[in-house]
Amino acid sequence: MLRTLSTLFLLVAALTLAACDDSSSSSDNLDGGVDADADSGTDISDVPVEDDADADAGEEPPPSLTHQEAERAFYELTCEHLLTCEHARPYIRLMAHTVDECAEYLWGEGAFRDPMRLGILREMTIARKLEFNGEAAYACLEAKRTLSCEEYDRVEPLSCAEVFMGTAVHGEACESSVECLNGWCRVSQGCPGVCLPLTEEGGACQESEECVPGAKCVNSFCTVYSAPTLLGSHCEPKEDWCAAGTYCDAATKTCVERLPEGEFCSGAYADECEDGTVCMLGRKASVSRCRRVVIHEAVGDYCGESDFCADYLDLACAMDGFPSSTEGSCVAAPQYGDVCYSYNGSIYTSCSRKRNLYCYGTGNAYEDSHCRERLEGGEACSLNDECVSEQCQYEGTERVCAPAVSTLCM
């Protein structure tokens, strides 16, 4: 089911917020619109139709996508949503300016490398744990294209439930609900989990994964989205269906007004701050506020607080007097082997995020640090920053990098 992908979509926002501390992307104040001539990526309606040997003579087979085409199209459609819809734009525009850049950043060999984990679904298909339906993939993506910004994360077209069909029956082991045949995967008691029957609309639930296709777990019942939840009404924090200009406060479980620019915020909610602002600590602040992020494209531009250098142009902020100061100016991001921290001038510059590098130091306070390639899964490490997965963990007595994508268990 593509429901798993809709859930994993939330990872993009979380990963992008993590990038706010030391790098950036897009080029203008976030309250501006998307460029009219921005590349909209591949239109799946233009993808060539696959031959179907079983099609009746004279009949055109229904439109279909290969697995790879579907992966790319899904990322492009997700990026189009993020860049177009006002409530989502602040996150993605920290790292990409156009749909094509965004898709390449997420789907290609960029810093985040497939955060929606579509690659592992491809591997599971090859291993025959899943069956991929190219016609359903085409229909799913076309249906999602028709959804409004408000509906995109709330409505699941039924065709999306048919893209990946699992082969594990009820009671068999699983890592994700996508593996289960007409079921969901309970992993709350450990991974691998176990496939269980789906809950019908109106039935009691704890997670949306438990519900039949088209329904989500809202206020403890499997519910199909029909209209936004109004200000002051009871809401479900895990599936925020609050109306525009509001968000679901987990403490009160009611829809409350989003916070204006400059207000203190917790950072616990994706839509906590008003459109065009992001809840962030800022480079030299001790508390989080809703901040309007400004992205700079030119070398020499000021950076600091909520002013960032365009990551998509491979720029980085050279912070002079680091760590006591986190202000500086935009420069070309250091590449492999370049100095990223100069002890003599106390200047720190983030390594190229496009090249997936990190700043390595020997620990000697009187030596410069240099940019290195991040380590793949299984390689020896000492810090999380060294790993592509950003997870340096113990295996026995040794610390090694965890695989960048190892499991769908979450």
Describe the structure.
Helix content is 17%, strand content 20%. It is α+β, with helices and mostly antiparallel strands and 410 residues long. Among the domains are: 3-166, no CATH class; 168-226, no CATH class; 374-410, no CATH class. It has a seven-stranded antiparallel beta sheet, with no helix packed on it. The chain starts with a helix and ends in a 9-residue tail after the last strand.
> Which range best describes the helical content: under 10%, 10-25%, 25-40%, 40-55%, 55-70% or over 70%?
10-25%
Shape: globular
Using the CA coordinates, give the radius of gyration.
Answer: 23 Å
Order of helices and strands: HHHHHEHEEEEEEEEEEEEEEEEEEEEE
Sequence stretches where pLDDT stays below 50 over 5 or more residues: 4-50
Alpha carbon gap, first and last residue:
16 Å
Pairing-aware structural class of the strands and helices? Answer: alpha+beta
- Taken as a percent bin, the fraction of beta residues is 15-25%
User: How much is the average pLDDT?
Assistant: 79
Number of continuous helical runs? 6
Please report the total strand number as a whole number: 22
Could you write a compact summary of the structure shown?
The chain is α+β, with helices and mostly antiparallel strands and 410 residues long.
